[in-house]
């Protein structure tokens, strides 16, 4: 079956049903060590995973690890430019769930991103990035403990799909010529818009299918959270990109108010219901005026549209969501992308799950990670309906490779996500407890040690940090 791989002789496959994993007690899980510091990170992380599973289940459950290859290590084994061999793809497809260290991708040309390739090949449409604070982790933010969010980033569309042409490319020039002469309309206000002929050009596809399946996963996650955290915020730049990012927002609301009608209320619906509850004699127009402060300056057509919206909400969900019932529903709202960067710093407690598109999500997840301690503590998962890959979210840091000094926290916490995804919550909780206690005790690697007050000397090695986590399970 494989050219150069040998699967474990024991263990069983993870299967999927309706997008959810069916996990045996002895799953076979492929792992990619990763480039650069992966040589240090993976052994430390695997040690923690195995110790947690043993401590939690006493031998009744066990992970059977299956080494597969990608990145520089794959080229060493399979030959030049074999960064993502078919063996690896076949193994991940066969066993369903995998975990990986950081992989190298040259900037500006050469091979495309291996991370993006894996997401697209396996249709891993949901990039899930929890950002929570562990007490004692140094942070530049005044109150990092207030931020506790999960970012759902659509993984397969947007400009990351990679449909683009460099400046001067013949196909790119043809596309620019066609757009300029055939598709871009002239308007009385702005005249004829033109794309400069010396432009690189790319395409930004955002589909209803891709948007709604991402929002669906975000809402399903919200249903599992405590009541006070049951909120999903659609993050977009729809005020400018109305037919791509604006459509993402609209499709998200459509999904929430149809497939999850009983479980969800939109922010705007909550205003309408709350206004009516505070004053049962409020007229439709008075309610409309309250939810749109600029109501009186609008056109008659727009005012009629808002009144119709108010009437529709009261008639359709007044019985099921009114009289305060909406307060127990999942709140679905939306925020403009640039404002959310400010609000996760100034009003972090107001947010729980952020659902957004690919580019916004890439920026936002790294910014949120910085608030709670940086990418060294940021886990990540890429989840589809029949496959999931968990990964360290930072780079390869090749200058530190083999020195046993880097922080394995990102990869270890990604493993925690994997265990939770598998339903092995007891093992996941042990690791989170061990890691939190180690940091609180100032048992940390150099990246955290140098930022603590006073600085920790000497810091722990990568392998020693893993030992500290295990030691602090109990």
Automatic annotation (TrEMBL):
<keyword id="KW-0329">Glyoxylate bypass</keyword>
<keyword id="KW-0560">Oxidoreductase</keyword>
<feature type="binding site">
    <location>
        <position position="446"/>
    </location>
    <ligand>
        <name>NADP(+)</name>
    </ligand>
</feature>
<dbReference type="GO" id="GO:0006099">
    <property type="term" value="P:tricarboxylic acid cycle"/>
</dbReference>
<dbReference type="GO" id="GO:0000287">
    <property type="term" value="F:magnesium ion binding"/>
</dbReference>
<comment type="similarity">
    <text>Belongs to the isocitrate and isopropylmalate dehydrogenases family.</text>
</comment>
<protein>
    <recommendedName>
        <fullName>Isocitrate dehydrogenase [NADP]</fullName>
        <ecNumber>1.1.1.42</ecNumber>
    </recommendedName>
</protein>
<dbReference type="GO" id="GO:0051287">
    <property type="term" value="F:NAD binding"/>
</dbReference>
<feature type="site" description="Critical for catalysis">
    <location>
        <position position="160"/>
    </location>
</feature>
<feature type="binding site">
    <location>
        <position position="129"/>
    </location>
    <ligand>
        <name>D-threo-isocitrate</name>
    </ligand>
</feature>
<feature type="binding site">
    <location>
        <position position="407"/>
    </location>
    <ligand>
        <name>NADP(+)</name>
    </ligand>
</feature>
<dbReference type="InterPro" id="IPR019818">
    <property type="entry name" value="IsoCit/isopropylmalate_DH_CS"/>
</dbReference>
<feature type="binding site">
    <location>
        <position position="153"/>
    </location>
    <ligand>
        <name>D-threo-isocitrate</name>
    </ligand>
</feature>
<keyword id="KW-0460">Magnesium</keyword>
<feature type="site" description="Critical for catalysis">
    <location>
        <position position="237"/>
    </location>
</feature>
<feature type="binding site">
    <location>
        <position position="450"/>
    </location>
    <ligand>
        <name>NADP(+)</name>
    </ligand>
</feature>
<feature type="modified residue" description="N6-succinyllysine">
    <location>
        <position position="100"/>
    </location>
</feature>
<feature type="domain" description="Isopropylmalate dehydrogenase-like">
    <location>
        <begin position="28"/>
        <end position="469"/>
    </location>
</feature>
<keyword id="KW-0521">NADP</keyword>
<feature type="binding site">
    <location>
        <position position="104"/>
    </location>
    <ligand>
        <name>NADP(+)</name>
    </ligand>
</feature>
<dbReference type="Pfam" id="PF00180">
    <property type="entry name" value="Iso_dh"/>
</dbReference>
<feature type="binding site">
    <location>
        <position position="115"/>
    </location>
    <ligand>
        <name>D-threo-isocitrate</name>
    </ligand>
</feature>
<dbReference type="InterPro" id="IPR024084">
    <property type="entry name" value="IsoPropMal-DH-like_dom"/>
</dbReference>
<keyword id="KW-0464">Manganese</keyword>
<comment type="subunit">
    <text>Homodimer.</text>
</comment>
<feature type="binding site">
    <location>
        <position position="362"/>
    </location>
    <ligand>
        <name>Mg(2+)</name>
    </ligand>
</feature>
<dbReference type="InterPro" id="IPR004439">
    <property type="entry name" value="Isocitrate_DH_NADP_dimer_prok"/>
</dbReference>
<keyword id="KW-0479">Metal-binding</keyword>
<dbReference type="GO" id="GO:0004450">
    <property type="term" value="F:isocitrate dehydrogenase (NADP+) activity"/>
</dbReference>
<feature type="binding site">
    <location>
        <position position="119"/>
    </location>
    <ligand>
        <name>D-threo-isocitrate</name>
    </ligand>
</feature>
<feature type="binding site">
    <location>
        <position position="113"/>
    </location>
    <ligand>
        <name>D-threo-isocitrate</name>
    </ligand>
</feature>
<dbReference type="GO" id="GO:0006097">
    <property type="term" value="P:glyoxylate cycle"/>
</dbReference>
<feature type="modified residue" description="N6-acetyllysine">
    <location>
        <position position="142"/>
    </location>
</feature>
<feature type="modified residue" description="Phosphoserine">
    <location>
        <position position="113"/>
    </location>
</feature>
<keyword id="KW-0816">Tricarboxylic acid cycle</keyword>
